[in-house]
Structures are given as C-alpha cells and as structure tokens.
Predict the structure of Glutamate decarboxylase like 1.
Amino acid sequence: MKKNKVITFLFAGLNSHEHQNHEVDLKHQAKCSPTFMDNFAVNSPTGEMNATESFIHHAMEIILEDAVKKATDVREKVCEWRSPEQLKELLDLELRDKGESESRVLQYCRDAIKYSVKTTHPRFFNQLYAGMDPYSMVGSFITEAITTSLYTYEVAPVFTLMEDTLLRKMIEMIGWDEGGDGIFNPGGSMSNMYAVNLARYRYCPDIKEVGLFAAKRLVILTSQEGHYSISKGAALLGIGTKNVYIGAVPFMVNATAGTTVLGAFDPIEEIADICEKYNLWLHVDACWGGAALMSKKHKHLLKGIHRVNSVAWNLHKMLMVPLQCSAFLVRDKTSLLQHCHSARATYLFQQDKFYDVSYDTGDKSVQCGRKPDAFKFWLMWKALGTTQLEQIVDRAIAMARLVCANVPVMDPEYSNVCFWYIPPSLRSVPHGPERWKKLHTVAPVVKERMMKKGSMMIGYQAHGDKPNFFRMVVISPQVSREDLNFVLDEIHNLGQDL
Amino acid sequence: MKKNKVITFLFAGLNSHEHQNHEVDLKHQAKCSPTFMDNFAVNSPTGEMNATESFIHHAMEIILEDAVKKATDVREKVCEWRSPEQLKELLDLELRDKGESESRVLQYCRDAIKYSVKTTHPRFFNQLYAGMDPYSMVGSFITEAITTSLYTYEVAPVFTLMEDTLLRKMIEMIGWDEGGDGIFNPGGSMSNMYAVNLARYRYCPDIKEVGLFAAKRLVILTSQEGHYSISKGAALLGIGTKNVYIGAVPFMVNATAGTTVLGAFDPIEEIADICEKYNLWLHVDACWGGAALMSKKHKHLLKGIHRVNSVAWNLHKMLMVPLQCSAFLVRDKTSLLQHCHSARATYLFQQDKFYDVSYDTGDKSVQCGRKPDAFKFWLMWKALGTTQLEQIVDRAIAMARLVCANVPVMDPEYSNVCFWYIPPSLRSVPHGPERWKKLHTVAPVVKERMMKKGSMMIGYQAHGDKPNFFRMVVISPQVSREDLNFVLDEIHNLGQDL
C-alpha cells in the first residue's frame, strides 16, 4: 500500500449483507479517527509500563525470598495455622471499587504466602505432592506469562510440540511399542474419567450421539482401594456410582498402580489376562504410582502395563511438577481419543488452514481452553535428565523404607508409610474394641497440635475397620533422615499425654 | 520429651496387626540410623540451594524481559511463525538420560518464549483472551510456587477464603440476593458440564447412583450459536449429542451470554419466563459475556441473569487473568453442588477434623486436585478495584465500536467484530455463489501471510452459509487506535493481490 495515496478498498460487515459493502478511504480514516470513544482515550494504550515492571520485579523478589527460599527452609514453620475466622480477620479479603497501592498489593502477596501451607517444605508429608523442583516451577511461570491454550498449533506451537514429545516418551516408558495417543488434563480425576469415556465409546460408539437411554446397564470393575474419581466419573458420565463394582455388562476394568492411602499396586499382568480374554477395556490409574516407571529398580510394580488400553499418570505427584500436570495415555491407534471427544468447532478447527492440522490437539479434549502443563515437565526433564528423575523416585522409596527401619512396619511397596502411634496410656489397655476406639481419637488430636504448632504436616484417616492412623508420604529430595526422625519424635512429643 | 533420656514409645505398622507393636528406643534409633539407604545419602537433602536460587533468578530476568516486556511491545512481532517441521529443527526437543547445564536450560526458556505466540501483544485479536495484567500474572506465579490444591482448608487456607470471597462477590453481581454456591473450574467447558450435571441431578437425583439406563430420554435446549462444550458435555455425561436440541423431556436450557463467534447475547428474561413456567433448569454460558456484569453501561446485555439457576463465567477472557480462571456459580442453597458431586473420600474429608469442615470445598468438584485459580483474580481485583475492571470492559467494547466506525459494520453487542475483506479483484465479480466461493478463499491466505510475517493475529471462520470472514476480538487496554487502524491497513496490504 502506498502510504501517500488515497486508496480505497472494501470491508463488509457480516450483519449487513456482503453486497452492501462500502468503500473506505483509509487515509481519511486515519486522519479523522476520534481521539475518544465512549469517553476512553484510544490513541495510546492505558497503563504505565515502568510502574508495571517495577511491581513485577518487586513481586518476583518476594516470591523468591518467601515462596521459594523460606518455604523450603527446614528451620521455618511448615504452616502458620489460623482458623477461617482468624484468617478472615488477618487478611483484608474485601474487594472494593477503588484499586489499592502497589505497596498494599505487595503486602497481600507476602500475606498470602505467609499463611499458605508450605507444601514444598521438607516436613510436609501430607499429600501425594511435596518438594520444590526449580525447573518445572520456572516452566510454570513461563506458561503463565505466555498465557495460551493448547487447542490449536497456531496459538501454542512450542507447547504443542513439547506435549507431543512428552506423550511419546511416556508411551515408550509404558512399553506400547507401536505408539499410542494421549493428552494432558487438569488432573488425574479427569484422566480417569477420560478412560471411562473411551472404554464406553469403544464398547458402543453410538452412546456419544444417543446417550445411555437405550443401552444395556454398563458396569465398571475396580478395587475397593481404587480412587474415588472412578465413582465420580461414573456419576458424571451417567453410568451411576452403583454400577462401579458389580454385575451386569462390564465394559472396563480399572486397575490401580499406587493406591492413595496405602500405596498398593494391583497385579496388572493377572488382570490383563482376564481383560484380554473377555475383551474388556483395561485402564490403569497410575496417577500416583506411574513415577515408578522412571525407576529400573521399581518399575516391576507396574509389570504388564504395556498390555493395558489406557493409563492416567500424574507428574505433579511423585515427580514434583507444580500442580497441575497430568497425562492421559491411550494405546489405541485409530484416533479413538479424537473420535470420542470431537465436536469439530469451526471457529478453531478450520480444515483450510495453511499447516498440518493434525497438530491442532484441542478436539481430543473435553475442554476447550487447556493449559500447556506439559512444558513444565519438559523443562524439568531437560534439566535433570532421566537419570535424576529416576533418582527422585528411588530416593523417595528408599527414604520411606528408612522410616520403616525404625518402626515395625513391613517395607511399603511405594513411599506411603502408614502407622499408628500408641500413646503410653493406651499400652495398658487390653486389645479389643475399647482400645481401638481410643486409638481412633489419637491421630486427629496429634494432627491438630502439629498444625497449630506448624512443625510438620502428615495425614491421617481411618480405613475399612481400622481406626485412624497416620499416612506419611515421602517424596521430596529435600527431605533428610533428620526430618524423618523428627516426625516420629514430634508425634510422640505431641501425643504422649493422650 | 526429655532429650537426654532413653524413652520408649510405640508405633505400630498397619500391615502388621496393631497389637504386634514394638517398643522403639528413640535415642538409639537416632544414633544408629544409617547414613545410606538403597545407596542414597539420607543425612542431608540433595540439591544445592545457591545454584537453585541463581537459576530461578536468571529465569525470572528472562521472563520479565522476553515474556513480559518484549511480548507486549507493539514494535515486536506477535508471533515468530515456524511450521511444526521447522520448529522441531530449531528446538532440541529430545529428552535425554543426562541433565543439561543451567545455561542450556535458560536457552530453552528463551527459545520457548521466542517461538510462542505473544497472546499479550497489542496486535493479538485472535482468541477470547488477550493482553497482560501484571497483578493476576504475579498471582499466578505465587500459586505455582505455593503449589497446592483446593480440596481442603487444611492445605489451602488462604486460597479457600479468597475463592469464597470471589464467589460471593460474583454471585452478588449476578444478583442472587439470597446467595448461592459455586466453584472455580479448569475452564468454561467444565463449568458448562457442571451445569448439565446439576440440572440433571435436580431433575432426577437417582441418576447419580443408577445411571441413565432406566431414565426417560433427556434433552437439553440451546441455540445453534451455543458453545460446543454443551455438546461435548452431553456426550460425556451419557445424554448424547443428538439430545441437545430436540424433542422428548427437556431438563435444562442453556442460554448464551456472548457467543464465541459473533458475541451475541440470548434474551435471558424471555427464556427465564419459559423456564420458570415449565420448571426447567436455566443455565447461562456467560464465559465470554459475563465480564459485562462489571459494567454499568453494558450489564443490560445479561438482564434477567438473577433469575437463572447457574452461570459459567470465565475471568481469563475479557478480564485478562492468565488461563485458567473460570467460575461456575449456582443459585441453589440446598448444597446441590456438594450432593451432586460428592464421593466423601475419607482420606481427605475426615469429619473429625478440628476445624469447620464446610471450608473443605473439594467434594463440590468432579476433580480431586484443583488449582487455586481464584487467587489470581482476587489479587488483580484488589489492585485495580471494581472501577478499573469496569474500565477494561467498557474500553474494550468502545474500541470494538471504533473499528466499526471505520468499516460498515453495525455496532456489535460486545467486542467481537466480524467482517469480510473484499480484495479489488472481487469487486467486479457479480454477487452470487461464484463471488462467495472466491471470497471464501481470501481470509485463509491473508491469515497465512500475517502469521508468517508475525505482524498481527486475528481469527477467521465460515459460519452457517456465510463464507470465511475475519473475527477480530478486542480485549486489552494495551490496544490503541493505531493498532486497530493497523489491522485494516495490514489486511489490505496482505490481501490486495488476491
């Protein structure tokens, strides 16, 4: 376009008819464009980039100091317990009409960090995630700053390729020699629901269009120890929670590799034998135990996983990527994931694009926007290599066994260590229901005391007919022998008067 | 515990029987604990905190420079287009056994940013998100560093309260005077699926347990312009995509406030009249249009929203919070959200906790782990105040109208501007199928050229019987009048030879 000539060309609005188009004088347009529109100055962007930079810079310092250094320092408290009422008093939660100053906002950042639980602290053993990996954390900052969604290659080229690289690598580790398909999800519950949906779709593709109204009653088999997401999935997907264990027409079996509480592994080979015989979809919920595939020493726990139809594997648990980073992998090579979930939205998945649209992964997902979570794990893997990832797993399991060397617990299969603390007063109570009833009340009180002191965090629950016990999950390489010993000492400190 | 005394106390392993417990000599144990376990040094944590800090520090500098400053600089390219094959050559994607050096990892960070699309750039008009808000971005860094999950108050006290604050505020803006319930989700598709599930649960609670097998055929009503997540949800939930528009027993109506392509608003009041008459669940997909509730000038677009049963509202679209930040809100006050989704996992939702367990929000979700996305929006709201949030919305719509002042398009309802570019060669082609067929090929070529040049990004699609047209979405306050004019000039530059 020659800038000095008055040129005319045509734009047409969709809400007029295309043939009612007008000629537009671009030169004129540039001149007479208003400086204000609906009272907004439109000639320059709003906001002041220097102030923005200064704010981000200060906030980054706070994050590094308080959320990274202090949060992982064993001399600091693992939590700064406040009840909801106290915390509401301490934090100025109210959202107002008027914005607040940079210094106030930075103080909100400090307070939010201060009163948050330090899940990266060496004495946090409370969940199936713990510890701080700097590479995946930095990866997460980048994906948040480069905010984008993984539906099309066009808006997420780098992250699309990295997700693809990771999925291939994980499929290789599972042992699907002929490849497979997969997708990262907002968590393991979603991945498990994907498995239910794919199994159902393979069993009867018509259900996608006509629903379950005319279908025979479908049933999912899983173990008592399987994660609750299978039941949640059955409810959401219209199968019904009562159809999760028993009778009728089974269409899928869910095996668990690493149960939530005990860290137990279902025998995949034996289950695969039966599933192959009856042509049942076999899904492995390896959200927690999948990390053992990284370990030459422990991967036998998942022996037979190369024979299954699908796998859910969370990287934000044992492998320490910041929540969320969760993969769903499927052995099928007929684009089942795409066929099962696709809706073919024309505004995203145009088929007349100028690049290979097989790189547009969005229609494999039940979501629309989807975070590039894979990048976090990709960057971490690059930095650490498979060797160090393997060491994270091997060390965590070794540390768990070290705990067991000191308490009379059989070696756990994985890194969950479950045990009772029996305070001196209970030692003289004869074994029987009365003793168990009293034992049941010990862990909640010890937990309350550790939280209020902020000295450590470790979970508890009852299980089947067993009274409340502690579940200590060891994950982070930042945990030392001293931290393990501290846990036992501290439980005794906090519970000896009970 | 007196440190200098040999004390004995009891731990019992779960896999032994509780009564086979042993006395443990803690003093002895501390002394004789091994220094190595499975070949791992266990006396001290692995890793070198100084190196970690230095890495994070350098990475933060790169993020500030490349992913914030350069990415939002109008003089820089909006994308650095490479085909999948080229990008694979440029990036060293392979994951190896051995970890790589800090300088290599930092280079991966730079490359990932360089070849990513700059969605925060003032000339990115391609999706329903754009622009950079420093406060919510900093909030996202904090939630990633403080990696935790929103299932229980115990592990996410601060973020639980902030989510609660935001949900209440949003419910107030919707106009549910008697309050309501809600939850943040990984995206609007999930929020819409929640609506389908809750509507179904209210219609027939038994479906949660027994599935749809014995149910009457259920039907969802929505408009042709509704988002594809309603269909995806119908497929996932066992209702079937064919039961989305027509016949049988309707149990919910989905109204759309701000359609994806045209930015159109369904008339909520009129739909609510009918839904109230027939006792149908009325859900409003306000993922895109919900932001108008912030604006005194534009909230009339959602008139009647206080009468509906549920609302999906994404903060990561018009309100510029980094993906993901998406709320699902429900008017019901009978804990429907909890009843519909609960699985009562005992390892998380113990009822003998020492605090008010109504702050454990996890069982309202179909997920297990769930990110504290609300914090990002909370921090942004604190910093900007309602007033400036309102200005973001008002300015975006004003800017969209400014585009329309220059092309013959009727004022859009919202900030989607849809138009055709008619190159000079087409002006002499008579109106009719031949002209439309040629017009259909224009936008894909212009798009290819703008991507390869990296000068701007703006979407295109066909729609109904209409040939490919451009959809320009204006969001960010960083967009100036010059950027809007540039879009029209640039389309002409790139397409005048077609």
Observations:
- The domain at 148-376 of chain A is CATH 3.40.640.10 (Aspartate Aminotransferase; domain 2).
- Residues 374-406 of chain A form the longest helix (33 residues).
